[in-house]
Design brief:
The protein is of the alpha+beta class and 658 residues long. Helix content is 41%, strand content 20%. The protein contains 24 helices and twelve strands. The chain has helices at residues 69-72, 145-156, 181-193, 251-254, 331-349, 354-366, 373-388, 390-401, 407-420, 423-434, 440-449, 458-468, 474-488, 500-506, 508-514, 517-527, 530-538, 545-554, 563-573, 577-587, 596-609, 613-624, 629-641, 645-657, and strands spanning 58-59, 79-95, 102-121, 126-138, 160-164, 170-174, 206-213, 216-224, 232-244, 257-267, 272-284, 291-308. Strands 1, 2, 3, 4, 5, 6, 7, 8, 9, 10, 11 and 12 form a twelve-stranded antiparallel sheet that branches. Strand 7 (206-213) and strand 8 form a beta hairpin. Helix 11 (440-449) packs parallel to helix 13 (474-488). It is globular and about 75 Å long.
């Protein structure tokens, strides 16, 4: 068995000023760049309408009848809202346990006119074009100087897209394909800072929401402070974190402190936010990390004008294009911590030889100590050394290929090599993956290790693709295709010709001929790309139950139009128990809080009425994963009345653990 994949980001946090790292010259990228949503060229600027209203625009100062959330965010299609925006963002890193000594960080000052144009409305979504005009950006800490800042300014001056729920929750973004991750994260960071999520109940005096941004999932409380003079006034306070971004992080382990508040006023005539003040401060002190951090955001937003554009002058909009998650992966902010972690590891590993570490790890294995802190620590030291020193990659590769170690131990070393994620590590893993002189087991381990690459190389993608469709390596074909799928969602298009995702989509016919459509569907799911998930969604109606089950698994935890409805329909109508099991597993990973209510109702019906015991049991486990009053009541009913003793026992055990 492969040693479990460690994450070198265990103690690293994604901060709400993610784009700040752009100014410090740190590297990273944002995966899954999606096709241009504009029908014109991706780089075309959407020109703002003239401020002279004569002839071209009409005044939108009309009363909004509804006073629910949908009314306060009720601006109709064609509305152009122009705001004055000011934002001061900062991050301060300090060493030691809550030490005052600053070890790094930076500040940025942004002033701009934020132009938001409503281009499409449905019952569930509001789509808006977003652009920053008259933009002034200062970031004195940028090592690349004015050139780096100028690049951000240029991109922010072009149109991007945001998707809102009727309550004001931001549910997605779309960027031109050539937008780099710094600009993407800055757009996200700014809009999320001024995100005020309203309750559907127009009379509610206070409400709580669960919201997500680059830092993780937060619990947020709102209080109504009006209305006064026909407007709604709201105060927002972040209560704390439910989960933090970054593998292994927890609010308790990171000693997170959230301070400050934000206030907003909504204009009933404009049908949108009219002004807001945000003063928030978040401190992170990760357990065992070399550096803590304090992040600040101070900003204001004030509505300057509201106008109406004729339909013919609206930016071109494609509602079926791919959308990225509302919260970024926080790669830019993680890079800040990774830079400091790298310096710490260089100091700790100075004078230590790779061969000694490998020998020590082998000794632990030989003595049966394959778990525990000592093994994990040594494994990470090997990975870190490969990350910091290209020569260590060559040395470790030679040790793996020497035949001195069995495939199990060599696989653990390969996983450590993959965790290093450098170009040299990818090259070494790709060579082992493609070499027929190595055992299938070793090549498979190298293949799996490649899945850790955040920015896969064209050579690695080509090697995986060739192996997936080479008859001489059928044992590796499935694994290679699955890993290719995962990396296709992160590929940045450096290779000439079709993108990795296009190649994956075009492989449908060949996989059908080979009888590997189920693997292909799982690879689509691994990519996480909307275009791929839409193809998988179509297979929920396939005559082959195995393909329906694979399609359901591919949609686990994914948000794509029609997926939730399709899964719910399969749960009710599919005659195959295995398909219903896969559907339940996918529904259990539903991330959208607004979708949980219908999901819970469907799981309850399965838990109570499905005629197959293992399906009822799977539904119970899914309900127990998100415990609430309704789910607990279903567990009680099953514990008392199910015809199968094993199912009743499962329900009782879940109740006892809740």
């Amino acid at each position: 068995m492969l040693h479990r994949t460690h994450s070198r980001r265990t103690l690293l946090l994604a901060l709400p000023v993610a784009a700040m790292a752009a100014y410090w010259g740190l590297t990273g990228d944002e995966p899954n760049a999606s096709p241009a949503i504009l029908q014109r060229a991706a780089g075309d600027r959407v020109e703002p309408a003239s401020r002279n209203d004569a002839g071209r625009q009409t005044d939108l100062r009309q009363p909004t009848a509804a006073r629910s959330a949908r009314g306060w965010y009720g601006a109709p299609v064609g509305t152009r809202l122009r705001f004055d925006l000011a934002a001061d963002q900062g991050i301060e890193l300090a060493s030691g346990e809550r030490a005052d000594a600053t070890q790094g960080g930076g500040k940025a000052r942004l002033r701009a006119e934020l132009v938001l144009t409503i281009v499409d409305r449905t019952a569930d979504a509001i789509h808006a074009a977003v652009q920053f005009d008259a933009l002034s950006l200062e970031a004195p800490q940028a090592p690349d100087g004015e050139a780096a800042v100028a690049a951000i300014r240029a991109q922010l001056g072009r149109a991007t897209w945001a998707r809102f729920a009727p309550t004001g929750r931001i549910t997605g973004f779309h960027f031109p394909v050539d937008f780099d991750f710094h600009a993407r994260n800055e757009v996200r960071s700014l809009l999320q800072a001024f995100r005020f999520v309203l309750d559907e109940d127009a009379a509610a005096a206070s409400w709580r929401t669960e919201e997500r941004d680059e830092t993780g999932e937060l619990e947020v409380e709102y209080h109504r402070r009006g209305p006064s003079s026909g407007d709604l006034e709201v105060e927002r306070r972040k209560l704390g974190y439910l989960a933090l971004a970054g593998a292994g992080n927890s609010p308790e382990a990171c000693a997170v402190a959230v301070e400050g508040r934000a206030e907003a006023r909504f204009d009933s005539e404009a049908g949108w936010l009219a002004e807001a003040e945000v003063h928030e401060r978040t401190s992170f002190d990760p357990d065992g990390a070399a550096f803590g951090a304090t992040v600040t955001f101070d900003g204001s937003l004030k509505l300057r004008s509201v106008t109406r554009l004729p339909q013919a002058e609206l930016p071109a909009f494609d509602p079926d294009a791919d959308w990225e998650a509302a919260a970024s992966a926080g790669e830019a902010a993680l890079a800040v911590f990774e830079a400091h972690e790298a310096e710490r590891w260089r100091a700790e590993l100075e004078g230590i030889r790779l061969g000694d570490l490998v020998g020590y790890l082998d000794g632990l294995v030989q003595s049966g100590q394959i778990t525990g802190e000592e093994y994990d620590r040594t494994w990470e030291e090997i990975s870190r050394l490969c990350e910091l020193d290209p020569e260590a990659v060559s040395e470790l590769t030679a040790l793996i290929e020497s035949g001195r170690y069995d495939d199990v131990f060599a696989s653990s070393l390969l996983t450590a090599l993959g965790n290093a994620e450098t170009a040299e590590a990818q090259t070494a893993l790709t060579a082992i993956h493609a070499s027929e002189r190595h055992s299938v087991e070793l090549r498979a381990a190298a293949t799996v290790a490649l899945v850790q690459a955040r920015r896969p190389s064209p050579a690695a993608l080509d090697a995986l693709w060739n192996t997936a469709f080479t008859a001489r390596a059928p044992e590796l074909g499935g694994t290679s295709l699955l890993v290719f799928g995962a990396l296709a969602g992160r590929a940045t298009g450096e290779r000439e010709g079709p993108s990795a995702l296009d190649r994956l989509l075009e492989a449908e016919a060949e996989c059908a001929e080979r009888g590997t459509l189920d693997t292909w569907l799982h690879a689509l799911g691994n990519s996480g790309a909307s275009r791929a998930l839409e193809r998988a969604l179509a297979y929920l109606e396939h005559a082959d139950a195995g393909l329906r089950a694979a399609a359901a698994a591919a949609l686990r935890g994914r948000s794509v139009a029609g997926a939730l409805r399709g899964l719910l329909d399969r749960l009710v109508a599919d005659p195959d128990a295995t398909v219903r099991m896969r559907v339940i597993e996918s529904l259990a990973e539903t991330r959208d809080p607004a979708a949980w209510s219908p999901v819970r109702a469907a799981l309850a019906q399965s838990a109570l009425r499905d005629d197959v015991a293992v399906v009822r049991e799977a539904a119970l486990l899914a309900l127990a994963s998100r415990p609430d009053v309704e789910s607990t009541e279903i567990l009680r009913r099953v514990a008392q009345g199910d015809v199968d003793e094993h199912v009743r026992e499962t329900a009782r055990r879940l109740l006892a653990g809740s």
